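Table S2 (continued). Query chain:
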Amino acid sequence: MPMEHAEHAAHVENAAHAEFSVLLGADFAGKSSVMAELAATVPTWRLLSTDGKFTETAFPLVAQLRRNVVSDVLPDLGTTYSADFLAALLQTAVVHLRDRIRASEPGAPIVVDSYYYKILAKCRLAGVEENPMFTWWRSFPRPRRIVYLDVTHETAWRRSGQGTRLNRLEHSGALPHEHAFESYQRDLRKVMLEETRDVPMTVIEECGDVARTAAAVREALADDFH
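Corresponding output:
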């Protein structure tokens, strides 16, 4: 497809699904808990995520692939499985979210958990600096806004069980010690902000509990979802 036609097609797709925003944050920022709180308190919003709470019943294959990445691929990343193989598997999550946006009624209030931004950032940090898939992902519908959950390193480390809940895509190096976690999360935040620099963003600082954080997200999106 000629470049001008591709750009026009992307513009049309974006225009048809302009009413969605993205909830973003580094690991253990609390996105899953906030998404669950929003599901309970704002039933008119459509919440899209690859988290098991949102896929286990309706999309069991997506949930199973996510589990397999953590249990089977990440432990052998760099030996049995390459970073490119990992990126190819993670693309299933990206395309799933894109498809769910497409299947939504235009104008419906939609919040997407991380969209492709966090997966792309993690692929880059895993060593896939550039890949044809990335160009495709970046052509997907553009959100109206990103709400970024910011938490302190101390809070994120505590939520990780002092490292006991970490996987290979949540810390640098071979061992999940605190410095490796902090270093990786700092790099992850930097890359995600690079990927989202052209999208309007509201940053929500640590609020102390899930209900207050979810209320802050609702307030941040009130004007977009009128």
